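Internal tracking record. Fields below are filled automatically when a chain is submitted to the structure queue. Please do not edit lines marked as system-generated. If the sequence contains nonstandard residues, flag them in the REMARKS field before resubmitting.
Queue: standard
Priority: normal
Entity type: single polypeptide chain
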Amino acid sequence: MAFMEMEGIIEKIKEKREFSELNDALVREKLDETLRQNPKFKEFLGRKRSEGYRKIIKLTRQKLHSAYGVFQKDKGRVMDLLDELKRTENEHEIFSIHRMLLSSVLSTKERLPFYEELYTKIFAITGWPKSILDLGCGFNPMSFPFMRLEEVDYYAYDINEEDIRILNEYFGIMGDDLNGKAKLFKFEDYTEFPKADICFLFKVLDILDKKGHKKSEELIKSLKCRWIVASFSTKTVSGKPMRHSYRGWMDRMLKRLGYEFKVLEFENEIFYVIKK
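SYSTEM-GENERATED OUTPUT FOLLOWS
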């Protein structure tokens, strides 16, 4: 299919504000998935006024929303909060601003009631890390005050270019205790991820795996980290409890690979703390 036709429809899909900051490669992946599932739609790619063309856009946006839409946020409010964070040295205000930042994203908002308990339990198993790799991080690096760590190298990767800019702004504000750098998240080359004491994979693997769990296994095996913490939601996007919150495939895979692990359970998320 023509390159220009694909570029044109990707641009059209991203006209919706919800997806405007997503990387083109991610949109292309969902578009390819739509076309694989509906081969007859390929003939409509260059026919912008056709019903088929509009259907391609609609179905691809639905896939994007399912995978990434729940992580969108009010960027203007976030930047205002970062400005407030720059101006204060009051510890109470710093924690209050961080709570508001974390509240702007669904996945981190859900963790607010137990963030401090979560990190206390994780680090009781892993020890205190000096370096953290956070893949598909969203705003999770902004939970740093709840980690109670000092002088940490933090490598953050995400799919959203605007979030990368926001995170680098945040890292610049936080100063010496948090030596952070955010980059665009790519799965094509696992070797690009740096070595770290611990890697966070919070709610990433369910998004990564579309058919089987080969990609998750490849990623976990490739990471140059002594510890990995992978989490899974126990609720659907609509808030209903999942019938199977445990991931049996994860247990079987880790046992087959010979990796020790412990499971931490919270109301809406479970965490596998894995020792490689």
